[in-house]
């Protein structure tokens, strides 16, 4: 194959759903002595394999709890799969729950540098792009205000502006196109489209078949952690329609 | 190993940002700000001198210097390990959403406490000069205990950070342990009596006391004790290996527990 941007091979992940989480030492010792530490195993994902070439855009469909977000987090590197391997080539911009790396006591400006470095960007680069970020978020007046006084929409806007300032090779989207007010949504959609035009590889989670159809050229359906359909968007869309009707 | 190094180079800006954040936020919204790093140890020194020097009748003029050296090093160890221990939990929002090498969090906590500690050494310089404890060539030795202290705090901090994720109780247990460590480090009493008694091992095999004692030698101008140096350094290196070892082994499970 030419140059895969993402290669997911036989990935499974197991969570332990212990009924009461043992997080006190006493409990643990007692349970250990009684040999009561049993976990209810739960496989959130089972045997997922696929490969995305550079520039392909994959839409991930499925009901709540099907494992969509878990899959994105594995690809982003937040979770480590219990079995299997993930290969990624290039810079990833995870637009997952934007602004999760913000510090509430920090001002907007300080957070630009903090969150930017969380995403692996360096200080000089951020300094050169600082005006662009502020401009795009439209929060110029609030950059010296502590983040705790921001509304959640403002946080998401700043988060989006920082995460997309660099041109990523791989873009991970978890329904973030619904960020902020309609004006900002338009702006952020435009920016994502612009990246699409530059040949970015996209992973996109959505409940909306329409969105997936218009944005993606490949799709996948997850059900209870299993991949039940994978291929061209139109083919998968027919399966999805059948399932949801 | 090569991969770890590459990761570190990529995220070194984040480490710098996290250290800076710790320092900036520690004193934000207090009027005196960073000056507190100087005032706070000075005030504690005065209290300890009054209680243990004046009231208990120790006539030594340089007693404040003695108290201050012990107290500064101890509080670096205490606050460094304590905040490293909580690092994973306080950064859980980030850990759950973005991939970042996780050791950066406890590492940055120890480092920012160390920077604050180094700044607070200015007080020691001032107090020592005022009370007539002048620097000698032996002062250069101070590098060794200071470096050992960093390694020790980091090793212990990484170890605690790992297990505090799974057992929240550790945070309470460690406060008690720290109190015990404080009383067994000869911070505000002279060690001679204890060293001559049959309980001498409490000091001799207390790595933090060894560091403090060596640091005092450097300040007061006498050669370092070889046993202290080797024991403290050996302990720190072993602890560092254990700390990073368990952290590396358990780190993939963190996200499931926070």
Notes on the protein architecture:
The complex is a heterodimer of chains A (245) and B (258). By secondary structure, chain A is α/β, with parallel strands linked by helices. Chain A has helices at residues 25-33, 68-76, 108-118, 123-137, 152-163, 182-197, 209-215, 233-244, and strands spanning 4-16, 41-53, 57-62, 83-88, 92-95, 170-174, 201-205, 218-223, 226-232. In chain A, the strands form two sheets. In chain A, strands 5-6-7-3-8-9 form a six-stranded mixed beta sheet, sandwiched between helices. In chain A, strands 2-1-4 form a three-stranded antiparallel beta sheet, with helices on one face. In chain A, helix 6 (182-197) links the parallel strand 6 and strand 7 (201-205). The mean pLDDT of chain A is 84. With 258 residues, chain B is mostly helical. In chain B, 76% of the residues lie in helices and 0% in strands. Chain B starts with a helix and ends with a helix. The interface between A and B is medium-sized, with 32 and 29 residues.
Topology diagram in text:
The complex is a heterodimer of chains A (245) and B (258).
Chain A lengths: L3 E13 L8 H9 L7 E13 L3 E6 L5 H9 L6 E6 L3 E4 L12 H11 L4 H15 L14 H12 L6 E5 L7 H16 L3 E5 L3 H7 L2 E6 L2 E7 H12 L1
Parallel strand pairs in A: 3-7, 3-8, 5-6, 6-7
Antiparallel strand pairs in A: 1-2, 1-4, 8-9
Helix pairs in contact in A: 3-4, 3-5, 4-5
Chain B lengths: L1 H9 L1 H15 L9 H20 L7 H23 L1 H4 L1 H4 L8 H27 L12 H24 L3 H14 L8 H5 L4 H4 L2 H14 L5 H32 L1
């Amino acid at each position: 194959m030419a140059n895969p941007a993402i290669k997911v091979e036989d990935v499974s992940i197991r969570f332990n759903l212990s009924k009461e989480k043992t997080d006190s030492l006493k409990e643990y010792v007692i349970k250990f002595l009684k040999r009561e530490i049993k976990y209810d195993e739960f496989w959130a994902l089972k045997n997922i394999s696929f490969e995305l070439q550079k520039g392909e855009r994959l839409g991930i469909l499925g009901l709540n709890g099907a494992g969509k977000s878990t899959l994105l987090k594995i690809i982003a590197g937040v979770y480590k799969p219990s079995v299997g391997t993930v290969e990624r080539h290039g810079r990833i911009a995870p637009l997952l729950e934007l602004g999760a790396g913000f510090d509430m006591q920090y001002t907007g400006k300080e957070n630009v540098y903090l969150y930017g470095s969380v995403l692996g960007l360096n200080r000089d680069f951020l300094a050169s792009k600082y005006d662009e970020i502020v401009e795009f978020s439209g929060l110029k007046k609030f950059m010296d205000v502590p983040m705790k006084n921001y509304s959640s929409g403002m946080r998401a806007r700043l988060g989006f502006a920082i995460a997309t300032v660099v041109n990523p090779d791989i873009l991970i989207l978890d329904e973030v196109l619904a960020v902020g007010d309609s004006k900002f949504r338009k702006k952020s959609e435009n920016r994502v489209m612009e990246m699409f035009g530059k040949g970015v590889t996209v992973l996109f989670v959505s409940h909306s078949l329409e969105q997936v159809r218009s944005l993606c050229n490949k799709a996948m359906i997850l059900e209870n952690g299993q991949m039940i359909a994978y291929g061209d968007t139109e083919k998968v869309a027919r399966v999805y329609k059948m399932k949801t009707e | 190993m090569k991969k770890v190094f590459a990761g570190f180079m990529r995220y070194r800006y984040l480490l710098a940002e996290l250290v800076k954040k710790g320092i900036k936020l520690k004193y934000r919204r207090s009027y005196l700000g960073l000056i507190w790093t100087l005032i706070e140890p000075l005030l504690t020194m005065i209290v300890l001198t009054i209680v243990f020097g004046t009231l208990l009748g120790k006539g030594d003029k340089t007693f404040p210097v003695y108290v201050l050296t012990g107290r500064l090093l101890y509080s670096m160890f205490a606050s460094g390990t304590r905040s490293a221990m909580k690092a994973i939990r306080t950064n859980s929002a980030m850990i759950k959403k973005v991939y970042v090498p996780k050791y950066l969090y406890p590492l940055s906590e120890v480092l920012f406490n160390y920077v604050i500690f180094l700044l607070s050494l200015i007080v020691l310089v001032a107090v020592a000069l005022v009370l007539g404890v002048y620097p000698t060539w032996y002062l250069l030795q101070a590098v060794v205990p200071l470096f050992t202290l960093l390694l020790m705090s980091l090793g212990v901090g990484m170890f605690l950070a790992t297990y505090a994720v799974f057992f929240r109780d550790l945070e309470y247990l460690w406060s008690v342990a720290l109190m015990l460590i404080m009383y067994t480090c000869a911070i505000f009493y002279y060690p001679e009596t204890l060293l001559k008694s049959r309980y001498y091992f409490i000091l001799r095999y207390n790595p933090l006391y060894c560091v403090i004692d060596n640091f005092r030698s450097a300040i007061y101008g006498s050669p370092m004790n070889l046993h202290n140096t080797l024991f403290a350094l050996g302990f720190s290196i072993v602890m560092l290996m254990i700390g990073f070892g368990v952290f590396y082994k358990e780190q993939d499970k963190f996200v499931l527990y926070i």
